[in-house]
Design goal:
By secondary structure, the chain is mainly α. It has 9 helices and no strands. The longest helix has 46 residues.
């Protein structure tokens, strides 16, 4: 069982237990607590209250789902841009002396291997301790590119292309790490438990006239909340879940390097 599957199961169990506990607490407060009689005798609550809280909860969930979708699209674009920058370095290296070509090819190969074999699995497992695991290979590649670009007799066009490409890779690495580790935690979305509680509370209040209807409504609402949070967790990171972004473009670039020989 993968780490993601384990975390998903733990989340489902935790959210289910928490939601059931809150639903029961609301049911007790509305029916068996000291204030239950006062609530039942009150005519101030109207069904529109339920519509308002349902709308707020649905709006929050849809907003967060859209945010996750945007992150997924950003991860795809980031991968394409980085791959294009790498292929730009490869094509630029073709006009350089044999020694420089070999150094660039070696540096790119080491970097891509580190990203594919070490960095990507770390992002899938959200192992933040390995956030910089491919940094040494990138720094080595950066040093190779800078040394070649700043050679005394280097053409300005070659220099600008190499430096622009390595700068793009540096930026895209930072974006990828941010997408993988900085914005994929449900803990940063406190609106979810708050709106979930308000929704359960409003459902209970609206059904004060029928205990049986209250039980059924709280159960259905709880299932909806658990389902919504589960799917949010699955989609929260573009590098995890059921449809993660894979380093296919980088693998293609690595295959290009393996098929090249310095001229």
């Amino acid at each position: 069982m993968s780490i993601f599957t384990t975390e998903l199961l733990i989340l489902v169990v935790a959210v289910t237990v928490a939601t059931a506990g809150v639903a029961y607490a609301i049911y007790w407060a509305l029916n068996d607590s000291p204030i239950a009689r006062w609530l039942h005798d009150s005519d101030a609550v109207v069904p529109s209250f339920l519509s308002i809280t349902s709308f707020i909860f649905g709006l929050a969930i849809s907003t967060l789902a859209g945010y996750s979708f945007d992150n997924h699209q950003s991860a795809i674009s980031n991968l394409i841009i980085e791959s294009n920058a790498i292929e730009t370095m490869i094509s630029t290296a073709a006009v350089l002396p044999k020694k420089d070509q070999a150094e660039i090819h070696s540096g790119i190969k080491n970097y891509l291997t580190a990203v594919i074999e070490k960095e990507w699995p770390a992002m899938e497992n959200r192992d933040i301790s390995k956030r910089e695991i491919s940094t040494p290979e990138f720094q080595a590649l950066n040093k190779i590119i800078s040394t070649i670009a700043y050679q005394p007799n280097q053409r300005s066009s070659i220099e600008s292309e190499l430096l622009a490409a390595i700068g793009t890779i540096r930026y895209d690495r930072q974006v990828r790490q941010s997408l993988a580790y900085d914005n994929d935690s449900l803990k940063k979305w406190p609106s979810i438990p708050v709106f979930s509680f308000l929704l359960l509370l409003s459902v209970g209040i609206v059904h004060l006239g029928s205990i049986k209807a209250m039980k059924v409504s709280l159960l259905i609402t709880s299932l909806c909340i658990v389902t919504a949070i589960t799917f949010l967790f699955i989609a929260v990171s573009p590098y995890r879940g059921w449809n993660p972004v894979e380093p296919l473009k980088l693998q293609h670039s690595l295959q290009m390097i393996d098929g090249l020989k310095p001229n």
